[in-house]
Amino acid sequence: MTAIPTLLAIILASFFLMRLAPGGPFDGERPLPPETQAALQTAYGLDKPLWEQAWLYVSRLVQGDFGPSLVYRDFTVSELVAQGLPISLTLGGLAITLALLIGISAGLFAAVRAGKAADKTIMMLATVATALPTFVTGPALALLLGLWLGLLPVSGRGEGWSWLIMPVVALALPVSGAIAKLTRAGLATVLKQDHIRTARARGLSETKILFKHGLRPALVPVASYLGPAAAGLLTGAVVVETVFGLPGLGRYFVQGALNRDYPLVLGVVTLYAALIILFNLFADLIYGWLDPRMREG
Amino acid sequence: MSLYEIRDMAIQIDGKRLVEGVNISVEAGKCTAIIGASGSGKSLSCLTPFGLTPGEALGSIKLDGIELIGADAHQMHKARSRLTGFVFQQPLTALTPHLTIGAQLQEAAAQAGPSRLSRHELVQKLERVGLSRADERLDQFPHRLSGGERQRVMIAAAIAHRPKLLIADEPTSALDASLRGEIMALLDELRAEQGLAMLLVSHDLASVEGHSDDLIVMDQGRVVESGSTADIIANPQEDYTKRLMAATPRLTEPAPDLPAVGNMLMETEAVTVIFPRPGWRRGKIEAVVDASLTLSEGEAVAIVGGSGSGKSTLGRAIAGIGPLTSGTINWQGEVLPERRARSLAMRRLIQPVFQDPVASLDPQWRVSDIVAEPLKNLRPDLLRADRDGMVEKALDDVGLGAEYLERVPTSLSGGQAQRVAIARAIIAGPQLLVLDEATSALDPLVGSSILQLLAQLQRANGLTIIFITHDIASARRLCHRIVVLDEGRIVEMGDMAAVIEHPNADTTKRLIAAS
Predict the structure, then answer these.
(1) Does B162 touch chain A (CB under 8 A)?
(2) Chain A contact residues (CB < 8 Å to B)
(3) Element holding B270 (H helix, E strand)
């Protein structure tokens, strides 16, 4: 129930913060004549008091109108978002799936081999993966797989699906490292608990004990990480989309911010915020499934 | 030959021998019990043969003709899952939280073979262990059930595949006194009905007496004494067994000599504590309703009841560390205000001691800081040197020397930690101690030494005591009067000896029978 006030607070904070930044949408290299500037300001309602503009923005937003783009003048923000969103969602969705797959299996494997060389190696790799920023892994991947080996397209959308591989891997790597660590730690706690001994006393195989009795409660920390992870993926996508030249939301976000395209930036922020809130709600639902005790406050 | 026969077993962990020279035999339809303090190796001896501890067993262990030492995986699997069922101590944590009762019962039954049980059969299994509304329970998760109900589910699961041997590791230790009797009776019944051999582990003589045929007493990894239960209890040979028996409080022991009682100290009038029900369901929980009792100087009063009876909530309300919805607490004629409004002097008057001594001490702090803390808050006027002197004095009062000052709680045993907790409670010179199950989590020997310490303090410092417990026999060693609580209401109140002689309320009768 707190989702809507949270969203509103984010929108208003971004609205006012952005206006604090110097410059405006119509400052080009060649300054426009003052009367043209004034006409543009009036046309887009930028001459009204700030609070009134904020009110107008929010009331239009409620009706689903994100307003016009101030820089890409032939497009509305909704049109730009409609172009970029599918690409960003595909990237983000695939990245989180990949990160969960890699992270949970690596964590499981490490937990089963606790204390052995495999465990230590996996945990070290997970630390490295978490620490490496996407603006390093992205270009490094492009250099290795794209330029030197020539296996995958370096930039833009080529034929088929191969263009997705590198951006998704670059995005997923840091998240998968964190998930591997959380899974490993969660399992280490759960596997010591009494109910695992009960399962073992029933003569179940170790694999069955791990998957049926151990894994679900061990994934609770992973579920709480999903919300922040989604945020990380969306903001990480900004870098990855720029590195790989993909027309996703991230690129509009950065260009919008640089050009002071207020409605475009606000539109993307609103969308990102909504997605992150949605992900947190989703994580709450997953909690209840992982551990039924959490269904009761 | 016995169904289960252990000959000259030793157990080692990482090359260290923890258990040596253990012989156990259990026959079909009979029960062999092992008792001993914690750390005596009793649980280790029961669980290690089945690979359920990190230890390694040596010697000879035969179950239904199968030698378990050096058994291959197939034989071990057969011994563990077909022939044996297990009931563990902690019903709260021994069931998997995310699987329904039905799923866990089904899994347990599958040890006998791959055929699935019908829902009707599952219901019958739950009904057999005395669970009401069995059909509904099948779809519930374990956390919806009470401790006693969960232990019944554990028992149903342990015998679902019709094993020949049942290993019960402290099956009743985590339950309150009246439930203990019920669960032990259920185990006896099932044993007779199915011809089960049962190996029972306990630290509590009372739950072994009358339920086991043979008894093994263990101490520090060795068998001290073994033989028929009735013989050992009637005529213990070894010194350790005698001390263990003397330490276990019983209602048949002679009444203790209690100090004289002075003037009226405290009086509660219609104390009521109501909690909002957790979760989405509306409603309230009446934890304590209209509790009125009196307390005189130097008097010890036992507040007794089963779990969930509201006895701890009442104690907390009096000590000013828990909520109080309505009612008043009068202290020598003055009304004690709600907890936040109490002055330092008022807080100093009443000090609590809790059940789990290790958990109630901050693991990061040294003993000297823990004991000094009440002084820092309640007596800010004192100088550091005076404070240090008082800390040593308080430790000395509870029987701990100056060498404990620098220790941290994790390096203390349960009994030592409880002594530190008591030192912390008495250092600021309180008049009333509220002891919430202060001896329940301790072994009988340690628990009885804490009871002795309390009796000493009661005399030396003229302390008034509220002793909250589910065990009337322990309370009898210390208390003049008894207050029995059931579902938040006082159901009986009076002189300790008189109430034990002629109990009126059903709850009281049940608790006395369980002691």
Answers:
(1) no
(2) 193-195, 197-204, 212-213, 216-217, 289-293, 296-297
(3) strand B264-276
